[in-house]
Write a structure and sequence with these properties.
The structure holds two protein chains of two kinds. Chain A is mainly alpha-helical. Chain A has one domain: Cytochrome C Oxidase, Chain A. Chain A has 17 helices and no strands. Chain B is rod-shaped. The chains are: A mainly alpha, B mainly alpha.
Amino acid sequence: MSAVIDTHGHAHDGHDHHDHHGGYGGVLRWITTTNHKDIGTLYLWFSFIMFMVGGTMAMAIRLELFQPGIQFFNPDLFNQFTTMHGLIMVFGAIMPAFVGFANWQIPMMIGAPDMAFARLNNWSFWLLPFAASLLVISFFTPGGAPGVGWTMYAPLTVQMGVGMDLTIFAVHLLGMSSILGSINIITTILNMRAPGMTLMRMPLFCWTWLITAYLLVAAMPVLAGAVTMSLTDRHFGTSFFNAAGGGDPVLYQHIFWFFGHPEVYIIALPAFGVVSQVIPAFSRKPLFGYASMVYATSAIAILSFIVWAHHMYTVGMPVQGQLFFMYATTLIAIPTGVKVFNWVATMWKGSLTFETPMLFAIGFLFLFTLGGFTGLVLSLVPIDIQLHDTYYVVAHFHYVMVAGALFAAFAGIYFWLPKWTGRMYDETLGKWHFWLTMIFFNITFFVQHFLGLAGMPRRIPDYPLIFESWNKISSIGAFGFGLSQLLFLYLVLKAIRSGEKAPEKPWEGADSLEWTHLPTPAPYHSFETPPVLK
Amino acid sequence: MSRNLKTALLLALVSLSTFVGIIAKYWFLNGK
């Protein structure tokens, strides 16, 4: 059964059809825009470009690891690639992608005309290209980009060249952008909901973003503090992390991971939000256990602040500390399990169809659960001490980040593309994109569990011959995975330029305001008069 | 002062205090 239905002519409340784009045209429109939809589009395209840049580095890493020995890159450049791949993917690709979704969707979902601070919104975005440029330019400075890993551990940070300073400044800018964006999102959701849109009636995507924004406001300043202390250690004679001056390098790890673990949920929670919109729409049922989803999301956010040291069991800590962090970490499995149960229960006895957004949502469900399970394995101290810094960890967090966040982002783009552009994507090509991504993702990363269990360390450009077979398979998977994403680019461009005109409500089961109260494509200015909600 | 501005300033204050507080804490703790 096709989910595509045409409801032309249904009633719309609270919108107008003045599709003017502000005072400027061309490039100036995009530089000066204060419209949430324009800024959402900017975030999404920026994120895709960064995804390609970070992906190219991933291809270089997998090319080097295709066989043992040093083939293409010297170890120093290899370290720079792994560092920048991580930083660019986390801060330049995944986070901006979900801020793009937030910009497009939150005002339309709560019945607001725009974000609370439209000019601030513009500035939040335009900080990003400067930050990304600093990261890329660092490759061309004396000593190259920092090769310290995306975690930027001390005392390595003190030993790097000027590229480290550019990276620290980039992190400051990225953090500032995130905090300003979060303040905007919280203010918009708390103060600008349409009458009748109570907090517990909001679509779950808005709830997950509200909680994520609080996490960002609390966690990003901690990272900013950590890199600022690294900067003063480098240039101003302080010894926060320098043992020779009475400082403590392990302190950096504690501070970094106090930010770093909430960061995992900063990436994952909006992905949960997207999936919580997609699964009910294609199951033609309301989300099962809405209230428990809200409470589970809050519980995950709170717990994320008391588990940071599970990233550093091996640095040496009292056994009581290890036990506390182990038990606290395993606790997270409970609210996460509630969410997985609710998504499955939503599909149970639903009238399911499997268009591309649903395929990516189900792919997310399988693979994120697997990534969560290996996270549970790593939370156990005795096992983690064996697996720390091995490819098992690399496999684990790629199942969370790629299969979790990226799959959810793809689900969201396919789901809302008709609303954003007024055009349908090619469903056949969409399904090809899903299956190629799904198959090549698993070829790339599933085998890395075996490499890790066999003892292959992460962040090395060369390895013993015994690891060759699985590395070859992983590299072949990575090249396939990377090429598959070119199909996604083609597919989106094709939809925008020559896609079939989208029906008013292409997804039968979609029931949030943007589908029920706005035409397709969404007008440039929406909800100038708040919608009437019963 | 509008309600939006009040909310934003409160959140900005929380962020800024965390940033300054974490550096100040280890500055005084380490006696730097």
